[in-house]
Amino acid sequence: MGEPALKHAEQTWVYGFGGGTADGDASMKNLLGGKGANLAEMAKLGLPVPPGFTISTAVCTAYYELGRDYPSTLAPQVDAALIALEKESGKGFGDPENPLLVSVRSGARASMPGMMDTVLNLGLNEASVKGLATLAGDRFAYDSYRRFIQMYSNVVLGLRHDTFEHILDDYKERQGFELDTEMQAEDWKAVIVSYKEAVEKALGKPFPDDPKEQLWGAISAVFGSWMNDRAITYRKLNDIPAEWGTAVTVQSMVFGNLGETSATGVAFTRDPSNGEPIFYGEYLINAQGEDVVAGIRTPAPISRERADTLGSSDAPLEEAMPEVYAQLRDVANTLERHYKDMQDLEFTVENDRLYMLQTRNGKRTAAAALKIAVDMAREGLITENEAVLRLEPSQLDQLLHPTIADNAKRDVIVTGLPASPGAAVGKVVFDSEEAFALAEKGEDVILVRIETSPEDIKGMHAARAIVTARGGMTSHAAVVARGMGRPCVCGAGGLQIDTAKGVFRVMGREVNKGDVITVDGAAGQVMLGAVEMMQPDLSGDFGTLMEWADKARRLKVRANAETALDARTAVDFGAEGIGLCRTEHMFFDAERIPEVRAMILSNDEKGRRESLAKLLPMQRSDFEELFRILGEMPVTIRLLDPPLHEFLPHSDADMDEVAKASGVSVEELKRRAADLHESNPMLGHRGCRLGITYPEIYEMQARAIFEAAVNVSKETGRQPIPEVMIPLVATHKELQILKKVVDEAAQAVFAETGTTLEYMVGTMIELPRAALQAADIASSAEFFSFGTNDLTQTTLGISRDDAGRFLKIYEDKGIYEKDPFVTLDQVGVGELVKIAAERGRKTRPNIKLGICGEHGGDPASVAFCHRTGLDYVSCSPYRVPIARLAAAHAALKESLK
Ligand code: ADP
Ligand code: MG
Ligand code: MG
């Protein structure tokens, strides 16, 4: 490994902070992790931060490059940083009189809750515990020491937590103690002896007494945790690359558990569930570390305002420690103005002195993100464009989905904390693995747990909603659910869960595994049965932000729609046209299918024409409706695409019925179906191949389109804009032949009606050959619409319907990073899109370019379309706002470069 060593020779690995200065700052998140960078920034701002140092993410990378070992230049830098820390704190690491105790904390670029548990009180040993005892009393010191042994043994040495719980329980039982508070210093000392014996027995070597050994053990545990299962799952769900690595922050301890004048807590500068500008958070008197989020004791609210909204009778920090509260409020304001974003803070109070332990941009629900972004722009803290960038397009989905109907009947069985808004209906499941398995099968499930831990992430992601019996608004379940956009009710008191029997009881009622419940995360309610839902509100802040987004974007957004309902939804959601109207959906209509079948069954053109003549008025009225709704916005209509056999009856009963109605015998029907049978219909007689073989079908459709356009223009005085699209073209010849059919139909209709309208004829690019031949094809096509569903199938040679068997494994192995049917495969399929766009434009500089596959509603794919210079994307109506926002992001991010 000569190369890394050389590279490492002069590198700085360690960055100190504290005492009003720091080696790093908030801009260095890549190197110091979010936690380390923000601690440095807070120190620089002069805020009260316990001093410490951060070992950079570059060490994590080097650690894995070197086969889990450190560059030789690291140890001297850590030693130097420790000496500086001793100086700054006036304490000595392992000093029996005045010991420096530290926490060892992990921190990646993006926050990864629960990746590795923080080790607190490191540096305690047989000697230094005595020093702590003179400062804070025997009982406190030995209790801290035994906690440290327990935590270190679990997190760093990998021993089971319950090993220690059992020892403690046994001891208490022998002494006849009920509570930990009955334990005196002597009792803790005795427990410590047993703890250490247990460690030695399990590992064959004693618990480390040397603080340096403890420190390196903890550092290695943090770097090691980067590759543990929990971290890997979290990274996968959140698109965090493995290369980023984690940093390690070593920080001198402050104690929130020194008695009634000490406390620990978490706070948000605004409400993370609805965005209201109130000071939000929870704290516990006389507590340390994760006690607040662990959900073991129920914390009290921070502010009076918050206590009132919750109806809490516990004294808020504002009243219990008014001076500390005022200072915390100041710090919160300073940080929010400094970062120009809502902050999530961790703090500890030691003997009435406030210390800040963490700040970061707070996770929030989509509703909160929206309100905070719009409010902050109005407050002048950020610009309108910045506000637009504050809302992730994918997050918008949460706002577009239903909540509980206003006057729906609610059979509430329990009320807990409104931890994450939104509503969902599903079947009760108590186990995360099971939730995941059922969701894979397409079931809607609701995960009900006593509390959650990082092991539950997969199950939480799979569930429609989460309910917990314990834990506050900042418990693990609450934080993760808000991040994932899952509705969540926490701390549903009185919920008695019997996981083994698969049942929970509350207020004398029983709910079994598999029973349907409804969760209202905004109200904190759990209801029996499926409660009626209501559509979302698209005015107010939502409308404002979308207006700002529309100002920022260049890409147009259309919708894929063929029914009047879909078309209206699309227009309501801000679509600027229809990018794909699939005419076959109109053929499937129950009233028309007999005529469609008759057409397919006829043996000659004459017979087909007779049936088509009956279909014509029906198609015409469909198009009229669309043109009326769309006004003067373009409507791209794709001529018939699927193989004809799809329209034939399949079951015997259906066959009988059709036979009776059409006067054709069942045998004849079966013969015809067999004739039309294809072994690979996706690559068979479909798309423009139908138009080539039966031109009369396309002729009828084109006529229906133009008659409809003329009728609506006469009726409304507005000019509909039909764009006729020929599917599955591979060669220029195909398009030339079929364009002629369309143009002749248009001329005939215009001549008959004496009205002429603008229209376009173009093609879908959904075969690789068409992409490569784009220069030629563009001489006949006035527009290209990339049909990226089929283009993905034909480029990758994967049929989407059969991909389920292997695509997941491909993703797991990283062969395709994302499902290529969800996110456009930019280097493969995307390359063909680029080639076609370029070649098409060479022939016809003003050719209109769009995309109409499912990818049109996927933010990453929308960004690709922007960069490739397409004119529009078209997606399902519900995704139109997501595409609008994604297009704005793409434009804004480009101008930031
Ligand atoms: P996470 O990334 O899981 O939030 P942290 O590193 O923030 O882990 O540590 C969790 C908790 O441990 C903090 O919220 C804080 O309460 C406590 N803690 C960490 N460092 C210190 C410290 N130096 N002094 C006192 N408490 C600390
Ligand atoms: Mg933690
Ligand atoms: Mg933290």
Outline the structure in words.
The chain starts with a helix and ends with a helix. The protein has an eight-stranded mixed β-sheet. Strands 27-28-29-30-31-32-33-34 form an eight-stranded parallel beta barrel, surrounded by seven helices. It folds into five domains: about 1-125 and about 210-255, Dna Ligase, domain 1, CATH 3.30.1490; about 130-210, Up-down Bundle (Acyl-CoA Binding Protein), CATH 1.20.80; about 265-365, D-amino Acid Aminotransferase, Chain A, domain 1, CATH 3.30.470; about 400-535, Glucose Oxidase, domain 1; about 540-585 and about 615-640 and about 690-895, Phosphoenolpyruvate-binding domains (TIM Barrel), CATH 3.20.20.60. The chain is elongated and about 105 Å long. About 45% of the residues lie in helices and about 15% in strands. The model has no long low-confidence stretch (mean pLDDT about 90). The protein has about 900 residues and is an alpha/beta fold. A hairpin with a 2-residue loop joins strand 1 and strand 2.
Topology:
Blueprint: H1 2-8, E1 14-18, E2 21-22, H2 29-44, E3 52-55, H3 57-65, H4 74-89, E4 92-93, E5 99-100, E6 102-108, E7 119-122, H5 128-136, H6 138-155, H7 161-175, H8 185-203, H9 211-225, H10 229-237, E8 246-252, E9 263-268, E10 280-285, H11 291-294, E11 300-301, H12 304-310, H13 317-320, H14 322-339, E12 343-350, E13 353-361, H15 366-378, H16 384-389, H17 393-399, E14 403-404, E15 412-415, E16 417-420, E17 423-429, H18 432-440, E18 445-449, H19 457-462, E19 465-468, H20 476-484, E20 488-490, E21 496-498, E22 503-506, E23 509-512, E24 516-520, E25 525-528, E26 533-534, H21 540-552, E27 556-560, H22 564-572, E28 578-582, H23 584-587, H24 593-601, H25 605-630, E29 634-638, H26 652-662, H27 666-676, H28 688-693, H29 695-716, E30 721-726, H30 732-753, E31 760-765, H31 768-772, H32 774-777, E32 783-786, H33 788-796, H34 807-812, H35 829-843, E33 848-851, H36 859-867, E34 872-875, H37 880-896
Parallel strand pairs: 4-5, 17-18, 18-19, 19-20, 27-28, 27-34, 28-29, 29-30, 30-31, 31-32, 32-33, 33-34
Antiparallel strand pairs: 1-2, 1-3, 3-8, 6-7, 6-8, 9-10, 9-12, 10-11, 12-13, 14-26, 15-25, 16-20, 17-24, 21-22, 22-23, 24-25
Helix pairs in contact: 5-6, 6-8, 7-8, 15-21, 17-37, 21-37, 22-25, 24-25, 25-29, 29-30, 36-37
The structure holds adenosine-5'-diphosphate and magnesium ion (2 copies).
Adenosine-5'-diphosphate binds at residues 50, 103, 105, 118, 120, 251, 253-254, 264, 289-290, 346, 348, 357-358.
